[in-house]
Amino acid sequence: MRQNKDPLPTSTKFCFLFDLKPSVGYYINVEYIVWILLMLSSINLEIECIEKKDLLEFENVLRQDLYYTIIFGKAEPIPHENARSSVIFLNTVLVVVFLLYFLFTPFLLVGILRSSPNMFIPYLIYDIIMINLSGCFFIIALIVWNLRMFWICFIFFILKLNSSIGVFSLYKECGGIVNDESDVSFTSGLSTATTMESICEVVNV
């Protein structure tokens, strides 16, 4: 029989200082507000970018958009339509990222409120995937020496790793199990034989 292998370390304190359950709950609520703001900003930029067919108007949209400036930096001149399409595509990816967090976080908040570990699963799985991806992009940023990408990925990685350790610790404190013999569900009414460990193995965690 294989030994238990947790996808994340655990802690009895959030940030090693605060009581686990209330601190995780407060943090996730604040984080949820941030996800909503980012999602709305990214969707608004996406709509404006798609509407602006003229490259000069498109550049002006990027220069005036605070969200774009924070995430991507000062807008550079857009030389051709392919560059415009690349910006739209990249922002589309971020729209999906923010939207999924927006959808999964309420499950987690209900799980924390009801001490139901099954409700933690969607958020935890997505968090683990995003931690791995941000780590990969962090390494890419080092290779290509993109300082903005480096710092964004680094900050995101640290924040998500810290919060995920807290969420996973609370998941286990609420009775969550990580082994091959446990049945965990993505929602309280949906049963599946897929465990946290097997899912993490699929995404190479």
UniProtKB/TrEMBL annotation:
UniProt entry keywords in alphabetical sequence: Membrane, Transmembrane, Transmembrane helix
TM region(s), chain numbering: 26-45, 88-112, 124-144, 151-171
Taxonomy, superkingdom: Eukaryota
Protein name: CLUMA_CG015857, isoform A
